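Fig. S4 source data, part A: sequence.
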Amino acid sequence: MARVSYHRLARRELNESAQFYNSESPGLGSAFLDEVERCTQAIVDYPEAGSLIIGAVRRRLVLRFPYAILYTIKQDGLRVLAVMNLKRRPMYWVGRE
């Protein structure tokens, strides 16, 4: 399996989003994390399937939630740059590596 690393801000986005969903409805945060994990596994299995959006940055949509995982393919694995809420500022993550 390819190594997956998270930008520290992407990790924060993931955790804060899960906490938000849990506060909305107990268990929804876990469902969110499960969907992100499923999406991440799909990226590991088919890294080039994500849409290229800028340069080498790819996007894969998370099912059931208005989120996308933005990532790059590196020699040592995959780098998740953002766990992006699709209803917020679209380009806030530019500049992350």
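Fig. S4 source data, part B ends here. Strands lie at 4-6, 51-54, 57-61, 67-74, 77-85.
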